[in-house]
Amino acid sequence: MLRWIRQQLGFDPPHQSDTRTVYVANRFPQHGHYIPQRFADNRIISSKYTVWNFVPKNLFEQFRRIANFYFLIIFLVQLMIDTPTSPITSGLPLFFVITVTAIKQGYEDWLRHKADNEVNGAPVFVVRSGSLVKTKSKNIRVGDIVRVAKDETFPADLVLLSSDRADGTCHITTASLDGETNLKTHFSVPETSVCQSVSQLEALQAVVECQQPEADLYRFVGRITVTQHGEEIVRPLGPENLLLRGARLKNTKEIFGVAVYTGMESKMALNYKCKSQKRSAVEKSMNTFLIIYLVILLFEAILSTILKYAWQAEEKWDEPFYNQKTEQEKNSSPILKFISDFLAFLVLYNFIIPISLYVTVEMQKFLGSFFIGWDLDLYHEESDQKAQVNTSDLNEELGQVEYVFTDKTGTLTENEMQFRECSINGIKYREVNGKLIPEGMTEDSPDSSTAHLMGEELLFLKAVSLCHTVQISYDQPDCLVGDPFSHANGFSSNNMEYYASSPDEKALVEATKRIGVAFTGTSGDIVEIKSFGKFEKYKLLHVLEFDPNRRRMSVILQTPSGGKVLFTKGAESAILPFATSGEIEKTRLHVDEFALKGLRTLVVACRHFTPEEYIDVDKRLTAARTALQQREEKLQEAFSYIERDLQLLGATGVEDKLQDKVQETIEALRLAGIKVWVLTGDKHETAISVSLSCGHFHRTMNILELLQQRSDNECAEQLRRLARRIKEDHVIQHGLVVDGASLSLALREHEKLFMEVCKNCSAVLCCRMAPLQKAKVVRLLKTSPEKPITLAIGDGANDVSMIQEAHVGIGIMGKEGRQAVRNSDYAIARFKFLAKLLLVHGHFYYIRIATLVQYFFYKNVCFITPQFLYQFFCLFSQQTLYDSVYLTLYNICFTSLPILVYSLFEQLVHPHVLQSKPALYRDISKNSLLSFGTFLYWTLLGFCHAFIFFFGSYILMGEDTTLMGNGQILRANRQLMFGNWTFGTLVFTVMVITVTLKLALETHFWTWMNHFVTWGSIAFYFIFSLFYGGIIWPFLHTQDMYFVFVQLLSSGSAWFAIIIIVITCLFPDAMKKVMYRHLKPTSTQKSQMEGGEGSVGPEYDPVKAQRSPGEDNWHLLAAFPSPAAPGQEPCSLSLYQPPRRRPSAVWSPCAATSMGKAAVPAWPTSWNK
């Protein structure tokens, strides 16, 4: 604890140096100068609280909320001074809210503790004192040698020392870290790979020097120094030598590794970063409204205090005969008295701020988020994946999106690659039935056979089958453990399957195998291919890994004849500038042709080294790889030196199919008023081709280009030209294409001009984009003066920064790992589900929470304004109008459930109509239901109803002599006015009925649950009041309410008053709704009346689908295809016609399944059986 405190204060930094030294098997040097470094233990802590800090830490977090802190202050004021209401009235609701939240957070943290204990207590084997010792995972220390068996996960970040294989390699999967399911090969250094027994490892003398822990999963810089026979051998260590905690060992019997990062310093733990808290527009509006109501509260309290002293200026009211002042009151300070009175009024009116609003909103968001996961229309049957919600705080934001930023590969496309064409030595070829056919020839042509491939063609195919990171898995489970080339001895190579992190690489290697040059496996540093039946072995000397900046990867091999050759492949912009020989111009033309067809292109080249050149290359690479400082920069320099003077071999064209219903989805989003931007790393010809095919760009659209800009001035001039063209051709729709380099220039100096051009374009396509550039574009739109709500959708690690930057981030569960899904707010299996997510779920969530927030403020204005008005009739004596029990239970019991159920199930329009008419989404855009005008309407309505409650009760019941509850007051005309508790109870009764029925008027979709809580709340109030007022409760100080409610209900005039007042309040509201609906209906109201017979546009069919009456629940929203009735045309649903599915237990319908039908006019007969 002391060390932790010192670290927090900066006196004891955890890592004094940039590197750490790890002594293998903790064999520390014997000389006395060595001071051991201190490292974290191997415990994983994902929990937030401990038994000791839960109460203070949780309370601190909860009272950081303004509303909670405000009610705490009010509660403390009630305890300190003599206030008109009991401290219980504000203390109990506060206690309820704090307790519910604390229980929820405590339970969640208990689950985290439970999961941590399971992980930390897992059994592991460690080499200690010459033997294998079984211990718990949390006991592993840095420097321990750990044994991991097949299919086990690594308990810490380990540097691989040896495996059961002779070459010291092992295969792992990192699916739990980055979602990639392919097998990855990791290596040990030759000096340690021979230590395969415990005794050999115990005798090993080695020291690992590496960087301090960092979160990047793909970066590791270190070196290992092994002492053999008194000689020190230094070997470089990189990511390929590090086994990360959480990864799993595959196809390898066992490995030994030394722990270098443990516990919370492991890379997996460092990636447990909390995403920045995103706040929805509704939450911001809610805080604004709270401040306005706080101002109203302060105004009422100050006005009441001033009026009290103005009234008491007359002596007869200052000290009436029946209320003489005490000596202390006479001598007290006027300022203190004023402050005391002001605080007392503040306490009296404090219920205008709704404390239960926060807890209701949290419950609504939490419970409402389940509906997305339950929706069968968002379930992808082929991959067995349902939609998932990672952040329920942003549900309503789905209904406010104005810009969608989407990745292309894997998001709009399937990320399933098919080899289609290639260009070799300036000649185009296509694959037909496993043969390469030159352009212009057919399969039957005499010269078209693949057997005639010679020279450059064969070299090209060998380059493609050798330059990659593909792994092989065989059907026989032990094949990889034994001889990796066992297929050569009678085992069929057809039984092997390729695994690759890049679908492009897999498609290319599979294509060369079909054509006749098959990659058959690796053994240590030997790579084997089978070229038209003949096996060839190459020695892998170096791999120059792919990185986003170079946009290429290379391998250096020793050929069977002993020569040294470099094969490289990458984007044409990364290869062609460095090519000095080969058919460069022809290949460039072919690459552009492939791109225009929508194919993904890669260029392949080679370089042959002389023995002297290779010695120089090897020396440079070794020096760069063993550097501990600035290793990346030195490697980049070495790579640039090596990858030049290339001989161009050819190019490949791979097709990536569009996902299902992409075009319809983009069109629906456009009709909903949402602008779609495509941000991709592909070259612009490929990107434009895909944009046209998916409907992002129309054929009639005027496409503007901002490409290959070299300087700021050139970029500015081009932007001005584009702006002029848009003004001149303002009738035509425009599409903008911009590349990464030009974008960098545009964002540097000409942001405003660039934004002006973009906003006037219907669609924008950004190509050749780096991941951080994607995030910059999103931030640019987010921070523009209009502050539009943005949504980013992608499937790969390169989309994470964009997903985290946007207001709403959506991950696609694709083939590029799970980073996007892990970092997103929502995850869906296919792009087509986005339309339903926004147009239906977003619409519903927004109208529900918008009404919830405003209704809460409305009912609290209704609640507290009569209390304010009552002060004019009681000489501002701070007498409370309602009993303290009613004050406490109003928001907790009497009016809380109807609005919660409304906010979970309300539907203004049937889901089918929302999908078939995307334009309805515009009705709720720009936070229209929470505009200041709407807020003002609800607030004024609350004040009007409160005036009617108070003065209606006063006028109708003021002369009733039959009601003489306690607190009888003799009026001037000697008639008896009924008691103040009876009057307050009448006002309260009218109020509970009115605010509940007001919500009933707002409800369009009635379910049995709505009926139950609406009428049940009113019934509960009556039953509770009869029970509460019908018994003398011994623990209450006063019995003010005894028999009051019974006496009130026994009066016919009270019933008459209740009915008259409720009708007076709600009748004008109902009339206004009817008038507006008929004279000035919104698009949504028109759709309610039409009953869903509209369509999204001329290219869409009407929504007609067979439904049974019981299926009009809100989450089984799919329209199933139905056979046409006799004499009718077959009907179809434009956007969604999911196949019939057999719901499993996982997809069992929720309670809403049989909740009835929306209260709208009858649907077309084709929707009913």
From TrEMBL:
Domain P-type ATPase N-terminal, chain residue ranges per copy: 36-90
InterPro entries to which the protein is assigned, alphabetical: ATPase_P-typ_cyto_dom_N (IPR023299), ATPase_P-typ_P_site (IPR018303), ATPase_P-typ_TM_dom_sf (IPR023298), ATPase_P-typ_transduc_dom_A_sf (IPR008250), ATPase_P-type_domA (IPR059000), HAD-like_sf (IPR036412), HAD_sf (IPR023214), P-type_ATPase_IV (IPR006539)
Record's catalysed reaction(s): a 1,2-diacyl-sn-glycero-3-phosphoethanolamine(out) + ATP + H2O = a 1,2-diacyl-sn-glycero-3-phosphoethanolamine(in) + ADP + phosphate + H(+); a 1,2-diacyl-sn-glycero-3-phospho-L-serine(out) + ATP + H2O = a 1,2-diacyl-sn-glycero-3-phospho-L-serine(in) + ADP + phosphate + H(+); ATP + H2O + phospholipidSide 1 = ADP + phosphate + phospholipidSide 2
A GO CC term attached to the entry: recycling endosome membrane
PROSITE patterns registered for this protein in UniProt: ATPASE_E1_E2 (PS00154)
Region (Disordered), start-end ranges: 1085-1109
Location of the P-type ATPase C-terminal domain: 821-1082
Mode of membrane association: Multi-pass membrane protein
Segment forming the signal sequence: none
Subcellular location: Early endosome; Endoplasmic reticulum; Golgi apparatus, trans-Golgi network; Membrane
Entry's transmembrane regions: 66-81, 288-311, 342-361, 885-905, 935-957, 977-1000, 1012-1036, 1042-1067
Binding site for ATP: 407-409, 505, 546, 569, 600, 680-682, 768, 774, 798-799
EC number(s) given by UniProt: 7.6.2.1
Keyword Kinase on entry: no
A single GO BP: phospholipid translocation
Predominant location category: other
Record has Secreted as a keyword: no
Cofactors: Mg(2+)
Any Pfam family: Cation_ATPase
Chain residues that bind Mg(2+): 407, 409, 795, 799
Subunit structure: Component of a P4-ATPase flippase complex which consists of a catalytic alpha subunit ATP11B and an accessory beta subunit TMEM30A.
Role played: Catalytic component of a P4-ATPase flippase complex which catalyzes the hydrolysis of ATP coupled to the transport of aminophospholipids, phosphatidylserines (PS) and phosphatidylethanolamines (PE), from the outer to the inner leaflet of intracellular membranes. May contribute to the maintenance of membrane lipid asymmetry in endosome compartment.
PANTHER family: PHOSPHOLIPID-TRANSPORTING ATPASE IF, PROBABLE PHOSPHOLIPID-TRANSPORTING ATPASE
Similarity comment text for this entry: Belongs to the cation transport ATPase (P-type) (TC 3.A.3) family. Type IV subfamily.
Protein name as it appears in the record: Phospholipid-transporting ATPase
Organism: Kryptolebias marmoratus (Mangrove killifish)
Source species taxonomy: Eukaryota, Metazoa, Chordata, Craniata, Vertebrata
